[in-house]
Every structure is written in structure tokens, then in C-alpha cells.
Specification:
CATH architecture of one domain: Orthogonal Bundle
Number of strands: 2
Shape: elongated
Strand content: under 5%
Distance between the termini: 52 Å
Structural class: mainly alpha
Largest sheet: 2 strands, antiparallel
Radius of gyration: 28 Å
Helix content: 40-55%
Order of helices and strands: HHHEE
Strand order of the largest sheet: 1-2
């Protein structure tokens, strides 16, 4: 069972302002949720393998690798401005 004092502390940490009516309701609701979690802890899951997804999903994307573009020097020569081997472009952020 969660106390009203604990609820007020949680609300303060979450930067929530709650009314007295909400305080009463949330105390009951959070207590109910925590009681349910305690009930779930009683379940025997010793033979169950941990999973993060119910399906056997695997990442099908390739890993990122640096790949030198064969014509990068030619492209840099065609660019209007370069700096240290990179294209120099106009800033999109405002500097204050």
C-alpha cells in the first residue's frame, strides 16, 4: 500500500501538481497496481527463457562500414568550397 506522503513525493519528483481528490484516487490506483505487481512476482518463471520480443525477430540491416567512394576526389574538386576534405556548406543553425 502506498501512502499519501509517498504519492506526494512521487508527484513532486515528476513535477506534477495534484489536487486532494486526485491524491486520494491515485493513492488507491497506485496501490492496486503495486499489489498486482507483487502478485505477478509469485508466478513461477524458472523454466521460461527471457525475451525482449515474443517473435524471433532479427536485425536484417547491414552493419555500418566506412566505404571509400571511388570518385570522391573528383566530386570535391567540383564543389564550390571544401575544408579538410569535406564539402563546406552554409550553416543551418543560428549562432547567437
Amino acid at each position: 500500500m502506498i501512502t499519501k506522503k509517498e504519492l506526494r513525493r512521487i508527484a513532486k519528483l515528476a513535477r506534477l501538481s495534484i489536487t486532494k481528490d486526485e491524491e486520494e484516487r491515485f493513492t488507491k490506483e497506485l496501490s492496486s497496481i503495486l499489489n498486482y505487481v507483487e502478485k505477478l512476482k509469485e508466478a513461477d518463471v524458472s523454466g521460461v527463457e527471457p525475451t525482449s520480443h515474443p517473435f524471433g525477430v532479427e536485425n536484417v540491416m547491414r552493419s555500418d562500414k566506412n566505404k571509400k567512394f571511388a570518385k570522391s576526389k573528383k566530386l570535391l574538386e567540383l564543389a564550390p568550397e571544401t575544408k579538410d576534405g569535406y564539402l563546406k556548406v552554409k550553416s543551418i543553425f543560428e549562432i547567437n
